[in-house]
Amino acid sequence: MLLRLLEVLSGEQLPKPTKGRMRIHCLENVEKALTFLKEQRVHLENVGSHDIVDGNHRLTLGLVWTIILRFQIQDISVESEDNKEKKSAKDALLLWCQMKTAGYPDVNVHNFTTSWRDGLAFNAIIHKHRPDLVDMDTLRRCNAHYNLQSAFNLAERELGLTKLLDPEDVNVDQPDEKSIITYVATFYHYFSKMKALAVEGKRVGKVLEAAREAEALVEKYEELAGELLAWIEQTILILNDRHLANALPGVQNQLQAFNTYRTVEKPPKFMEKGNLEVLLFTVQSRMRANNQKVYVPREGKLISDINKAWERLEKAEHERELALRTELIRQEKLEQLAARFDRKAAMRETWLSENQRLVAQDNFGTDMSAVEAAVRKHEAIETDIVAYSERVQAVGAVATELEAEGYHDIRRVLRRRDTVGGLWDHLRQLVAARRERLGLHLELQKMLRDLGHLMDWMEEMKCRLQSQDLGKHLHGVEDLLQLHALVEADVAAQAERVRVVGATAQRFAGDTGGECYQPCDPAAVRERVAQLELGYRELVALAGRRRSRLEESRRLWKFFWDAGEEEAWMGEQERLLSSEDVGRDLTSSLRLLSQHAAFRGELSARATSLEEVLARGKDLVAQGGLGSTEVARRVVEVEGRWQALGELANQREKRLKEAAGFFQFQAEATDVERWLEDTSRLATSPELGHDEYSTRSLARQHREVQEEVRNHRPAIDALQDQAKALPPALANRPEVAQRLPELDRRYQELVARAEGRGQDLEDALVFYTMRSEADACGLWVGEKEQWLHAMEVPAKLEDLEVVQQRFETLEPEMNTLASRVAAVNRVAQQLLATERGNQESIRATCEQLNTRWDRFRALADQKKEALTSALNIQNFHLECNETTSWMREKTKVIESTQGLGNDLAGVMALQRKLSGMERDLEAIQGKVRDLRAEGEKLATEHPEEKTTLSSRLTAIEEVWEELRGSLRRREESLGEASKLQGFLRDLAAFQAWLSRTQREVASEDVPATLAEAERSLSQHESMRKEIAHYGDDYRATRAVGHQVTQGQTDAQHVFLHQRLEALDTGWEELGRMWENRHHLLSQAFAFQLFLRDSKQVEGVLSNQEYVLSHTEMPGTLAGAEASVKKLEDFVATMEATGEKVQGLVATGRKLVAEGSPHAEKVQEMVDSVERRHRKNREMAQELLGKLRDNWELQRFLQDGQELTLWINEKMLTAQDVSYEEARNLHTKWQKHEAFAAELAANKGWLEKMEKEGHQLAAAKPELGKVVLEKLVSLRGLWEELETTTRTKARRLFDANRAELCAQACAALGGWLAEVGAQLRSDDYGKDLTSVNILLKKQQMLETQTGVREKEVEGVRAQAEALSPEDPRAAEVRERVRGLEREFRGLREPLRERRRRLVTSREEHQFRRDLEDEILWVKERRALAVSTDHGKDLPSVQLLIKKNQTLQKELQGHQRRVEELLGRSTGEGGDAFSGFPAERGVQELREAWGELQLQAEERHRRLEKALAAHQFLRDAAEAEAWMGEQELHMLAQEKAKDELSAQAMVNKHLVLEQELRDYAQTIQALAAQSRDMVTNGHPESERLGLRQAQVEKLYVGLTELAGERRGVLQEQQRLCQLRRDLDHLEQWVQEREVVAASHELGQDYEHVTMLREKFREFSRDTSSIGQERVDAANGLADALIAAGHSENATVAEWKDGLNEAWADLLELMDTRSQMLAASYELQRFFHDARETLAQIREKQQGLPEEVGRDLNTAEAMQRLHSAYEHDIQALSAQVRQVQEDAGRLAKAYAGEKAAEIRRQEQAVSQAWAQLRGSSHGRRRLLLDTVDKFRFLKAVRDLLLWMDGVRLQIEGQERPRDVSSADLVIKNHQSIKAEVDARADSFQACVAMGNALLDKGHYAADKC
Fold first, then answer.
1. What are the φ/ψ torsions at residue 1762 (nearest 5 degrees)?
2. Residue 82: what pLDDT?
3. Predicted TM-score (pTM) of this structure
4. What number of helices (H) and strands (E) belong to the chain?
5. H-helix or E-strand containing 78?
6. Long-range contacts formed by 1581-1584: CB under 8 A, 24+ apart
7. N or C: the chain end with fewer CB closer than 10 Å?
8. What pLDDT score was predicted for residue 784?
9. DSSP secondary structure, 82-117, as one string
10. How far is the C-alpha of 981 from the C-alpha of 983, rounded, in Å?
């Protein structure tokens, strides 16, 4: 269908369509159609044969429309009557419709959709051409359906136009445009033919009329030519006058006169010239047509003479026009420039005057804020003035330009320029003077503000420094000192400010005598500065005096504070050290031990601080200041208590260590027992799980238990070691000695049980896993068996393929299942081999699974075999059908080539038809062979299908033989053409390959990555192989081509020869291109390879740098050794990397040497890599040396550490003082001797260490300090160990003596004597401290008594153990018994003395507490009654916190005061009779009550002060915030562009919103102030005033925000205008580039295209540009009308835009005129060439034959008449060419004029020659007809005469009368016939004479 449609529309014959309904047939037919369209140069976008065959509606409709547009609509071309513009296609058709429907009411055709809905347009077109068919008056627009139906029926019935549309297709909202275009095009083609016939008739009439008028115009030529030449000479003299006016009106008048000449005077003359040429040509043509002598004018009045004169006139006219237009443009520019100058000057004068008036005012204000606002305002004014300087300079520049151009009114311009310059200079002077005055005011206000601040500050500081408060305690004094330090720092800091203020004031304090501007009175300034300096000196003196008093107070209170802390701490520690608690368990014992160790450290730390405290106390005593007596007493008390504390600490440490060891053993043993119980319960559990998951979980848990059991072995061994380390008394206790063997036994049992349970769990897990896997396999087999039983082999191929696919997925599953079944069997065999339970169950499970699996595999194989057989048969049938269709299709292709191959063109067409046929036949033959083998195989496997298979094979063989026969017959019929066909096919294929390869090789793409480079190079190498492979094809094709083209000269063979030459050139060029591309790719590959290697090397170097820079010196031997090895490995790796670096460097240098495009970058990278590699190697060697040194040092330090640990361990043994007890002294003595021998044996270890250390220090001096310090430490430890060992040996020796008992008794007796003396003392303390000391001594005495009693018991035991043979044994025992009696008598005195000391302590304690509380209340009362309520919010808050702290202290102290008062009332008997307690208690009670009342009152006062200061702080913050916002509001910054303007507006809107939101804060402040005023706040007046200021500031800020919003919005609109103007100006500039183009076209088609494009460009530019310019002007006018601050700038922008727009319009008009002129010229050349070609064609078509006889001559005459009728149609074209040439010759000069004349002369000469040839042939044909007519008449007469003569001569003589009568009658009849022929004879003779007289070319024959 598509091919037929193309044949009908194009009128050409297309290839026959391939028959068949298969997809491949459809694709081939569509491809033929698309190929034809491509040959016709029809552009198809993304349309393929697959899209059409697959039914893509959108692309199919698009293709049909493209076909209709190409063959039906594209050739439509219409000329408009106004500008002769030619349009094409849609626009031309629309213009034609508009022209035809113009004047019809209610018909407005402006598109091809809605304009046709009512049907009136169709009827109007028909009525325009055939008014008799349509009555337009009867049609109504509302009856669209009737109108459409009538028009379609009329077109089909009367015009024969097919009805392509129905009314329902058009009468819709949006008709289909393409359908209407297609239908309207049929009207156009039909009516165009009618118009052509009418035009031909009119042209014939015009030719005849011109022929009749030719003779009448001859006489007019001489007169018209003379007049024209005289006018030309006179006009040239006038035009050469160059005296032009120097003003725009004068130049305009001259140009108007010139235009009047061109439009009024010249056109008639130009018409006269053209008429002369036409007249002469007409005269000459008519004379030639009438065989007259051609008229030639005399010399001087020839057309050439007139043209030369006219050229001189055109040249003078052109020069005159150029001069006038140049001068006019210059004058217009000068006038525009002058107008711009006046406008700018007026704007500048107005602006300068206003600013002068503004800066002349000195309203600076009298305070700081007003002056600062004036400064900001002045800065804004200066910024505007600086920015305005360019505009003032622009005025001068415009005036200078006017002066340079010689403007006629330049004096006025210069005067105004000078006026503007004077105003500008005066304004600058005023601004500078005002700036200076304003600066003085600002400095003065700053100085006065700083001076006032300083005076207020100094008054406040004086009040604070005159305070008499020196502190009641240490904290109070320190707080005062800190505050005073801040005050002093503040005072010192303010000194510079005082100096600066004084220096600043000197500027305003001097008297200048009125010469300089003075902003204030100098005397007032000097007075205030003097007051400031005097106040500052007084303040400095006050600060020094107060610091000395505070320092003295702090030293005293510091000592009392530190001494009290030390005494309190010692008292607390004495109580703790006296405790007998050593802990109930390990935790408590260790805690106590750690606390004691911490106490030891604290005791050492306290010693230093205590010494410092005592030293300060002694200094105070030595100075003899206030309180020196009390200080001395406290020093003595502290020293005594410190000595007693050290003795208590040593005793407690010993007890705690012994208890901790025992508790540690007990705790660890208990933990082990509990763990054994828990683990045994888990290890002996009978639970083995019920499935795989539970068993696996139990096994995992059991493995964790086993791991835990193994990990507890070291813990049990550690218990053994710990028991051995216990003291013997504790080690022999039952809970230690019997507990360890039991723990070891239970652990061994646990290990055995765990092993057994683990094996049981593993067996159970394997069993459950096997069963689970077997069940899963059985389930899968059951599902698949069910599917296989239900499956039947289908008969259709599609169903077979589905089932086959399912079988393909089944096979992998079966393979997987087979492995799983094998695994189950393997596990079952292992379980059966273990001979455990479940044997029968395991065996049954395996047998059942194997049976089902074998049955399933057999079933699957059976089903698969059946399916495969059925699928093979179906595939065989399908392949047979496809192969048969394929062979039949190829047979049709071969048959379709029957009409080709007769010539070279046919052979080329045959090549296209039979391309690839041989390869297809080979493939078909292989396919047939495969099908034959497949059929035989299937017949063997399926005997029941053998008949069907054999018939299919037979049919295929028949079709194959038919195809081969067709091809063989076609090859035989072609003969030599087959060779030519093969050559052309090979040539086309080779050229296609060559073009494709050249495109690939010519690619200039440079690969950007290594992979891309490798791929590109590989592809390029493969291309080389492909080129080499095609070399034989090239040579073979070249050889055959020479044979084919040799001796052939026809066009086809010449074209073929050219193709062969192009093939040679392409082959050579391909080789060069390949080499160039290969070189480029090789360089790119080398560079990418270098980049890859460089990146790798740089990564390695970076890694090396990181490792080397982040390697630290380890602090252990293992770490040092590992670091050295690691760095050595790293250095080895660096060496390996070095080879890679060297390779990279070599590669880079090679690239540089080869001149790589990236040589500079490569060289830079090579240098960088070399430098970094060298640096890394140096760093590595340096670091390796340091690490090795560190390794040796760490090895030495580790050896020293090991020796230190060994010495410390031995030191513990040597320090063991258990030998002080009398037991096992001999054993300990033996052990000690062995210990001494061990020390002697290991002394060589120390000597070796010392030797190695000295060697290391000598070799590595930098390590000497560390090494020597370690050696000194080791030597000191060793010597200490030896000393301790010797001491222990001596003590062991001494302990082994009998005198120990006697000595002990003596010592105890002496101690009892001392105790007795102490108990008899009457000293019970004079104060609390002495009483506490006596109590401590009493407690120590009691403790010592208990200890001594134990010693007495030990002595008694030793005495009893003495041998009776010892002479001193009885004496010792007696002394021991005496000691026991004395100890028993000591107990009662001790109790009595304790009771008295306790009573004394209570009395002194009560008095001390009473005094302390009274002192404490007095100290706090000073805070409670303070009138300082703070100067600001922080100070008030601080005071409130202090007052709150005071109240909390009062609350906390309440209980103590009440307790103390309660003690005074409960213990008021005899106990306090010696103390004035009643008076102190009463004083305390009164002071305490007053303190509470004052604290509450102060709290209320501070709350009020806090509220006031909070309000003031909030008000200050509000003012500060509003001040910041005011700065934002007063900011004069201007936006740079629209974005910044929009951002500023948005920012300001946000600020306004914040300001509106801040109103709530202002209202809250107002409510707060009203509440405080209402409640009678002391500062009500101040608060109200401050609130009024805040509200006033807020109102002002709100107004300022509104003003700034307006300013910002104006700036935004200005930026928007600037943005629009920039875009528009850029758009105008872009359009100017197009409008200023000088491209006028190379030929008629080119200039037509340029003209159409420029017309579209002009329309778009005019419509869009005018709209945009008007919009911009409107926006600018709106800004100016609104009084924008930048009115002048906006006006300037507007003028610039309008000037640019006017320039663009002028350029467009100029280019339009140039294109129109170029169009006319090129159209003339085009028409002339076409006319000349037609004339020559007619000239060549003029035959020379005149005919052989009268009939042929008359036929020739009739043909010549038709020929003359044809050439008469050319006369109008020739005349049009002549008219155009005459018209254009006037407008052009030089080469173009000469070319116009040459074209016109060529056409005229050819036309004259054609007319002459036609006239001559007409005369020749007339003469020939006359000749043949004369000869025919002569021949007829001669024949008649011969017949008459024969009749006369043949008559017999009459023999009788009747015969005589008969003869007479015959003769008379002959006579009558002769007479009748007489006229014929005369006419013939006259004709011959006429021919002779006329000079007939055959006169000699006549």
1. -65, -40
2. 46
3. 0.30
4. 49, 2
5. strand 77-79
6. 1583/1508, 1583/1511, 1583/1512
7. N
8. 76
9. TT--EEEHHHHHHHHHHHHHTT-TT---SSSSGGGT
10. 5
